[in-house]
Amino acid sequence: MNMSRVTTAVTGLVASALLLSACGSSKPASSANSAPEKTASAVTVKDVAGREVTFEKLPEKVALGESRAVYGTMILNKDKPLDKVVAWGNDLKANAPDLYERVVKKAPEAKDLPILGAIPKGDLSVEGLLTYNPDVYVMSLDAWRAGQKNGTLEKFEKAGIKYVVTDFRIDPVKNTEKSMKVLGQVLGQEKKADEFLEFYRKAVDPVLEQAKKAKEKPSFLLWRAPGAKGCCATWKNSNFAAVLNASGGQSIADPLLSGESGDITAEQVIASQPQEIVATGGDWGHKKPDAKSKTGYLNIGYNTSAEEARTSLRALASQPGFAELDAFRNGSVHGLYHQFYDGPFNFIVYQLFSQWSFGKTPGIDPEKTWAEFHERFMPFPAEGAMWVDIEEAKS
Q1: What is the pLDDT of residue 16?
Q2: What is the predicted pLDDT for the residue at 6?
Q3: ω before 23 within 30° of 0 (cis)?
Q4: CB atoms < 10 A from the CB of 361, how many?
Q5: Alpha-carbon separation of residue 198 from 181, 182, 191, 204, 347 (angstroms)
Q6: Minimal CA–CA distance to 78: which of 344, 382, 369, 380?
Q7: Rounded CA gap, 316 and 328, in Å?
Q8: Phi/psi of residue 148, each to 5°?
Q9: Distances in whole angstroms, Cα of residue 12 to Cα of each of 8, 21, 315
Q10: What is the CA radius of gyration of the chain?
Q11: Rounded to whole angstroms, how far apart are CA atoms 358 and 136?
């Protein structure tokens, strides 16, 4: 036998076997192969405070600094609005009992979720928060500002707690879309966030276009939660006022206030003679009006009929001097659900401000938009009265 041929054959068989073994292996050749997997699943979020936060993997445990953040989470996952949520604040039940009731009906676990303290109040226990081992804490922009001053953010950094900042309240015109993108990223619901934002822009863009064409800006008193304190709490180019200004109206408080929000007097309102008055309210029958208030609360929301809301709206004329305002005499007074000021459903406020400023316009239909929104994105149907005019529309 030719030994050189045998040696060549054996060498070829060994090489082939080694090649087949390498190709058929299902295990990585070394631990270095695990690094790309971690990088591929990493999530980097840029929040509304301009911070970039990177997570090695998609968060599985989420703490909500405010339970009203559910306004966003239920849009992103209407079947499981509290998916991944391990703890939250107590503000939803206190400020929007009608919404809390509906969230609990859809997600009964809401009743048993641990309650967290609030950063602005200074009663959030970082040690207590750590017991829930959250991958991310979601806080509002005003909580972030407060946390910088009272040292809470420093405690977060020392404890290694990652957080993201959202904002639907201070500058909704600038931050609503950014905030929904942030929530979509940390909750793994980016496609649903994009779907909602497409709907959002479709609702808002016609309003913005109409505002650009308007030759005059009608004046508004945005009366923040009458009954909560003496007349009259309102905003200056923030919150509802920012939406109003973008929609083609003008808040009478803009030249009167120095900060983002504050109070103006009844005398200042009467002197300004706003063309339109919009008061905000809610399902607040359990709350006692402030001793300094000359009115009760506006009763409005998912549990309130239009006639009940209209009756309480008419009662606001009991504020001394307000019965003489042109807006009350002309029927240009409107009620608005207060919780629209703190969530991604502010698109409806754009449409309402537009309608109250310029009348009904093709392509801007609040009733139709609100119904479609619930059908597509909400875990419960559109019910009750979320806005109302002081005079019933004539058919």
Answers
A1: 41
A2: 38
A3: no
A4: 14
A5: 12, 16, 11, 10, 12
A6: 380
A7: 10
A8: -65, -35
A9: 6, 14, 97
A10: 27
A11: 43
All residues at 6 or more sequence positions from 131 whose CB lies less than 8 Å from its CB, including other chains: none
Cα(20)–Cα(96) distance, integer angstroms: 65
**Which tokens sit at 30?**
């070394």
| Tokens representing residue 92 in the block | 């939803």
DSSP letter string, 177-239:
HHHHHHHHHHTT-HHHHHHHHHHHHHHHHHHHHHHHH-S---EEEEE-STTSSSS-EEESSST
What residues does 88 pair with on adjacent strands?
64, 115
Average pLDDT over residues 296-306: 98
Burial class (CB in 10 A: 0-12, 13-18, 19+), 160: exposed
Q: How many beta carbons lie within 10 A of that of residue 320, not counting itself?
A: 13
Helix (H, G, I), strand (E, B) or coil at 240: helix
The pLDDT value recorded for residue 17 is: 39
Residue with tokens 């445990």: 61
State the pLDDT at residue 40.
53
Please say if the pLDDT value at position 13 is more than 60.
Answer: no
Contacts 24+ apart (CB under 8 A), 289-294: 289/227, 289/228, 290/227, 290/228, 290/229, 290/230, 292/229, 292/230, 293/226, 293/227, 293/228, 293/229, 293/230, 293/231, 294/230, 294/231, 294/318, 294/319, 294/320
Q: How many CB atoms lie within 10 A of CB 169?
A: 22
Digit-coded pLDDT (tens) for 39-96: 457 999 999 999 999 999 999 999 999 999 999 999 999 999 999 999 999 999 999 9
Nearest residue to 116 (alpha-carbon basis) of 63, 157, 168, 156: 63
Nearest to residue 312, comparing CAs of 279, 339, 270? 279
Give residue 319's region: left, alpha or beta (phi > 0; psi -120 to 50): beta
Nearest of 179, 181, 139 to residue 156 by alpha carbon = 139
Question: Does the pLDDT value for residue 1 go beyond 50?
Answer: no
Query: Which candidate, 96, 38, 40, places its Cα nearest to that of 71?
Result: 96
Token couple for 124: 């959030």
Q: pTM here?
A: 0.88
Distance CA 12, CA 24 (A): 18
* Cβ–Cβ under 8 Å, residues 144 and 37: no
Q: Which residues sit opposite 136 in a β-bridge?
A: 62
Sequence-distant (≥ 6) Cβ neighbours of residue 319 within 8 angstroms: 226, 231, 232, 266, 294, 295
Per-residue tokens: 206: 């016609």
Distance CA 272, CA 162 (A): 47
